[in-house]
Amino acid sequence: MVLRRFCICGCYYTHNLFIKEYEMHVKFVDREQFLSDYKKILLSKSCYKPESLIPQLEEECERRRHAEAHSIRQRNCVLEQYTPRHPHLYTLQESFLDSQFLEVVRAAKQPDQTSEGLTCLLQDHRQRVFSFPVFTKEFCKMFVEELTHYEEAPLQKGRPNTMNQYGIKLDELGFTDFVSSLQKEYLSPITRLLFPDWGGGSLDSHKAFVVTYKEGEDVDLSYHYDNAEVTLNVALNEDYSNGELYFGPMRSEQSSHRTGYAHQLGRGLLHRGQQFHGALPIMSGIRHNLIIWMRSSEVRNKLCPMCDQTPKLVPVKEGFGDGFIQLEEDACFLS
Ligand SMILES: [Fe+2]
Ligand SMILES: [Zn+2]
Question: How many domains are contained in the chain?
Answer without folding.
Answer: 1
